[in-house]
Amino acid sequence: MVGDARKLFIGLDIGTSSAKGVLVDDAGRVIARASGDYPLLVPRPGWTEQDPEAWWSAAESVLQTLVAAADTPIEAIGLTGQMHGAVFLDAAGEVIRPAILWNDQRTGAACETIERDVGSEKLRRITGNPALTGFQAPKILWLRDNEPDNYARLAHVLLPKDYIRYRLSGAFATDVSDAAGTLLLDLAARDWSDEVLAALDIPREWLPQVFESPEVTAEVSDTGARTTGLVAGTPIVAGAGDNAAAAVGGGIVKTGVAFVSVGTSGVVFAHSESATPDTSGELHCFCHAVPGAYHLMGVSLASGGSLQWFADRIASDEAAVAQRLGRNLHELLAAEADTVAPGADDLYFLPYLAGERTPHMDPNARGAWIGLTLSHDRRHMVRAILEGVAFSLRDSLVRIEAQGVTPDKLILGGGGAHSDVWRRILAAVLNKPVAVQEDQEGPAYGATVLAAVGAGVHADVDAAVAAMVSAPETFEAPDAELVAEYAPRYQRFTRLYPALRDID
What we know:
InterPro entries: ATPase_NBD, Carb_kinase_FGGY, Carb_kinase_FGGY_CS, FGGY_C, FGGY_Carb_Kinase, FGGY_N, Xylulokinase. This protein is an alpha/beta fold and 504 residues long.
């Protein structure tokens, strides 16, 4: 039994497939974990929705489990979750319709309206981003144009994690990093943009109050306490969007080190001391969870997802073989790919199976192998996938560096980071020393770091990271021969999408 001096914090992540929570002490030790799944709703092709009540039910269960594992009262709670979604509430705080998620594609016409009414250049200068189908603002316009009865009831619009805050406390609040993904935030002011809101006729009172990520926004109410086991009055800090929270949990709170995630999607995340929007619209600029700071971010929509697709749809017959060998199918496929020389005998793969964000911002982009011959086999195809994903991530890094943010080394996270083959390819293509983030608790862990600051246990985010986050001690330098091999191949890769884009 640990003495009462230990301070405990909960981080809760409202993800796309599940709610995940961690109980962590002030030294960064994970005491307990819990998760609860919920379904993804796809009422039409291209639409993705979820029932906010399902989030709340999972969150209640997760919180009950974590509270039961605590031997001392919880000091504070940090929230994080999937960005860009829209939860629509009426004046009584009741959900009007299922939440529309970040990967929903129904809002193309609304995006065109935003670009026209605000102005493309002004929109990117103020918000740091172009109008994309996943963001929250076009979802509001879609509701107006397609469900007028629901729109007439609208009184509040929340992001997914902030709906959980509302259920825990009754407060309408958000943080700067998540708000920056709505397309309604003035990056420089770190508050809602009156100019954008006026252009889109969105009342400011519909939106929650904006806080810096470690700030206390509310306290657990009596009602929230009864259903979760938490103590009424427990502070709830603002928290952060999932990528910013994951970066805090990985120690990406200063310049010099960037984070590269190779999960279902791929992300390149770099800390910046100032807002440097990419006016071309090819790169995201958001507020960071570090007060006063920002981050540049590129996203590849189907990184690990491309390998997962191949495993599920093309190589599924090998799953039994992998199991017999005591390996998962991804490991087996990567090992086979490692028997092929770099470049996969001039085979390229465009990993655009779900459209693409950085740099193309094209929901209609499609995947392709280019250069297939009779001599290629499955090994070459997998090698091309691993290399194509690495090239797509380099597209993001190149644009981050063009904004004057040049990391010296990279921390890799996600499932792909644990593949020796893929890690060597990533190091060479990105041409940076790399290390693997061993702590895989993800955004929920970063939310506990922010909670520790909000509770006053650590002075600021830098101090909390120093006390709670274990930074990698060694970085693996890229192989010089591989760097030389991949440099010209990346240049060829950049010419493939433009060559195919306009083919009818």
